[in-house]
Design goal:
Elements lengths: L1 H63 L22 H8 L3 H6 L14 E9 L2 E18 L2 E4 L5 E8 L7 E10 L6 E9 L4 E7 L5 E7 L9 E7 L4 E8 L5 E4 L5 E7 L1 E6 L5 E10 L10 E10 L1
Parallel strand pairs: 7-13
Antiparallel strand pairs: 1-2, 2-3, 2-4, 2-5, 5-6, 7-8, 8-11, 9-10, 9-12, 12-15, 14-15
Length: 312
């Protein structure tokens, strides 16, 4: 009987072992199958992802044609096609600098400044003042150098320039130089030298030649004696008038007037002063000057001077 029980117990143990092994085997097969399905699904997902990426990379060419390599991001609407791109988008592609591309602007091309040249220089003299004007081919700083002094153009940086110089010497010749310097990355310089002359004015000195004649002495603004100067003289005495007559100075700059007048009216060009010499036994009184040249208020033109002679 005990042998029979032992034999039965052994059979049950073997049966249980077989069942347990079967369960383990079945579980292993299920796990293996699930693992293979997971790997297969992962590959399919990768293939789909790669396919979608490839489509996105081709999207600019298939949707918008040639778009100057512009990348369409998810934030941009799909309506950005070649025929409907806004003008700002085109400017961004065409701009040459990062700042311009980010702002959607096209930077202007700076103008080329060709070579600097001074032209149309002119000196206009009136009285003891000269006004010098000139132009430059490009904007520049410019000035005039005269007698070692520098006179800047009143216009500053410009293409048209002018300076006014006063207190010049009458009857003198002046040499001056215009200097101009342009600005920018490649500055250039130009110089022009010219000459002008201030008109000469004349002083009429009156002296006695002898007891019966006066002597008119003509000197210029540099105090040189002037010959061939034309002077019209009209004299008046207590008894009457000596009619106006024309005279010309000799090589000594003198005109002899042999009439004992006490009042005079003289007419000549650019008269600045009428006076008696220091050795004369008289002085001049009641002197007036009138410029007969129409529209002229300075010292140049045809003058009439009136004066009287008062003996000591």
């Amino acid at each position: 009987m005990f042998n029979h029980i032992n034999k039965l117990s052994l059979q049950v143990t073997i049966l249980l072992s077989v069942v347990i092994l079967g369960v383990f085997y079945f579980g292993a097969e299920v796990y293996k199958q699930n693992l293979n399905e997971h790997k297969s699904n992962a590959k399919v997902s990768d293939v789909i992802s790669d396919s979608n990426s490839a489509k996105e990379e081709k999207l600019p060419r298939t949707v918008a044609g040639e778009m100057d390599s512009r990348q369409i991001t998810p934030s941009e609407p799909a309506s950005l096609q070649a025929g409907s791109l806004p003008s700002g988008a085109i400017k961004k592609v065409q701009s040459t600098t990062p700042a311009a591309r980010s702002e959607g602007k096209v930077l202007p091309t700076p103008p080329t400044s060709g070579p600097l040249r001074i032209n149309d220089a002119k000196a206009t003299v009136a009285d003891r003042t000269v006004v010098i004007t000139w132009n430059t081919s490009v904007e520049a700083r410019s000035s005039v150098i005269l007698d070692g002094q520098n006179f800047d153009s009143v216009e500053g940086i410009a293409t048209r320039h002018s300076v006014s110089i006063k207190d010049l010497t009458k009857g003198s010749t002046y040499n001056y130089q215009i200097v101009a310097k342009s600005l920018g990355q490649s500055p250039s310089e130009d110089k022009v030298s010219q000459t002008f002359k201030t008109p000469t004015t004349y002083t009429i000195l009156l002296d006695l030649y002898d007891d019966n004649c006066y002597k008119f002495i003509i000197t210029d603004s540099s105090e040189y004696l002037v010959r061939s100067y034309n002077l019209s003289i009209e004299g008046t005495t207590v008894d009457g008038m000596f009619p106006e007559a024309s005279y010309v100075s000799d090589s000594n700059g003198e005109i002899k007037y042999c009439k004992r007048a006490t009042k005079f009216k003289i007419t000549g060009r650019d008269i600045s002063l009428v006076s008696a010499t220091t050795k004369s036994p008289f002085y001049l009184g009641y002197r007036t000057y009138e410029n007969l040249t129409k529209g002229r208020l300075d010292e140049y033109g045809t003058y009439v001077a009136r004066f009287s002679v008062v003996r000591f």
